[in-house]
Amino acid sequence: MLLSDFDYDLPEELIAQTPIEPRNASRLMVLDPRNHTICHEHFYDLGKFLEPGDTLIFNDTRVIPARLIGHRAMTGGKVEIFLLRRIDGTHWETLAKPGKKAQAGNVIEFSDELSCEVKASTDFGGRVVEFRFQGVFEEILDRLGETPLPPYIHEKLEDRERYQTVYNREEGSAAAPTAGLHFTKEQMHGLEAAGIHLGFVTLHVGLGTFRPVNVERIEDHVMHKEYYSISEETAKMILDTKASGHRVVAVGTTSIRTLESAATGKNEISGCSGWTDIFIYPGYEFKIVDAIITNFHLPKSTLIMLVSAFAGREFVLEAYRRAVEERYRFFSFGDAMLCYVKQPKEERDRELKALEESHQINTHDG
Fold first, then answer.
1. Domain end marker among 144, 172, 187
2. 187 and 97 in one domain?
3. For residue 360, what pLDDT is reported?
4. Looking at the domain assignment, is residue 151 inside a domain?
5. 252 in the same domain as 134
6. Is 356 exposed, middle or buried, given 0-12, 13-18 or 19+ CB atoms closer than 10 A?
7. CA-CA distance, 78 to 116, in Å (whole number)?
8. How is residue 330 annotated by DSSP?
9. Given 27, 39, 116, 218, which residue has the most CB atoms within 10 angstroms?
10. Distance CA 138, CA 161 (A)
11. 252: left (phi over 0), alpha (psi -120 to 50) or beta
12. Which helix (H) or strand (E) holds 338?
């Protein structure tokens, strides 16, 4: 398949710059791929589409204030350090900007209580740094660091917690699992009281989530690696849900990638942790996930490919066109989509075959 197969036109003014209040007042587009229906609701209506016994799976990662602004100790030149992954108690894998001011041996000072020395370069152009600090690193980072926002958000976020889910607890992400931003604690309590099970996994979102796909054949794209973890308790909840004939509803693409990475077979999963670079695009057979809640994603992104794998590429692009016509809000602080019935395998196979044949025809014609 080609990258251009996942493109769509989006007016810039539909990119949400600020979060809506309250969180669950955002709009909710509901897709049924099997019956090819689209309806328009609000996120507080989510419970209408869930049944007692269904299980919602949330990614409980927390975004760290990963952006640090400092100056080179010798010259005073400004350097930005972006934390990507903790290696040990003092060493981190980072991005440095500008890289030429962050060579091995350079010391960068952020305050009287925090500095770092560049130790090495990484394969992808990043830097490994060793931090030196007085006190508790996490407390210093919370005071000095800035919460990184996606590059398409240009307005300042007044409340940093609005780029966190209300159920976050495991620090480590460079970006928020944005589908979860719509939930309020009150709504979660209400769903649980209605017999909906709430399960939690962890996937620390890396900076690669914003990295564009730079190959024309999407099969050639290499995904970035992200750390994930699922407990035996959550795995058992999923197995019990499946055994009782109910649905596993993944909240966000990060939860989807975690569940499908941890799957050991169709409707089989166990507690585990590790690194995943799973790439889900049309043709993928889902093993665990029965329904998804997600935001509206960037054109030509791996995330719109994932949603297309679940609901069918043509139907998803039709839904996106409708979202533009209806003036939905897009991306991290935008509106949400619920896709709650999988497209039958034979329909997906027909669509994939037709798409491949059209490419062959275009190639012969050209």
1. 144
2. no
3. 67
4. no
5. no
6. exposed
7. 14
8. B
9. 116
10. 16
11. left
12. strand 336-339
Q: What per-residue confidence (pLDDT) applies to 347?
A: 61
SS (H, E, C) 243-260: HCCCCEEEECHHHHHHHH
How many domains does the structure of the chain reveal?
2
Per-residue confidence (pLDDT) for residue 207, from 0 to 100: 74
Q: Give the C-alpha separation, 145 to 66, whole Å.
A: 6
Residue where a domain stops, chosen among 117, 144, 171: 144
- Please write the tens of the pLDDT for every residue from 36-78: 999 999 999 999 999 999 999 999 999 999 999 999 998 999 9
Task: Say if residue 215 is in the same domain as residue 271.
Answer: yes
**Cα–Cα distance for residue pair 306/255, rounded to 1 Å:** 12
197 and 302 both lie in a single domain: yes
- Would you say 179 and 26 are in contact if contact means Cβ atoms under 8 Å apart? no
What's the pTM value of the predicted model, to 2 decimals? 0.87
Q: Residue 124: what pLDDT?
A: 73
pLDDT below 70 — which residues of the chain? 341-349, 351-352, 354-355, 358-366
Which pLDDT score, from 0 to 100, does residue 365 have? 47
Neighbours of 361 (CB within 10 A): 10
Q: What is the pLDDT of residues 163-182, one digit of tens each?
A: 999 999 999 998 999 999 99
Q: Are residues 199 and 325 in the same domain?
A: yes
Q: What is the pLDDT of residue 349?
A: 67
Do 181 and 90 reside in the same domain of the chain? no
Q: Give the domain range for residue 190.
A: 3-63+158-365
pLDDT (0 to 100) of residue 224? 84
pLDDT of residue 366: 44
| CATH, residue 107 | 2.40.10.240
Question: Where do the DSSP E strands lie in 102-159?
Answer: 107-111, 114-121, 127-133
124 and 37 in a common domain:
no
> How much is the pLDDT for 363?
46
3-state secondary structure at position 318: helix
- 32, 341 contact by CB (below 8 A): yes
Q: Are residues 239 and 102 in the same domain?
A: no
Instruction: Judge whether 150 and 222 are in contact, CB under 8 Å.
Output: no
In a domain, 149, yes or no: no
CATH number at residue 7: 3.40.1780.10
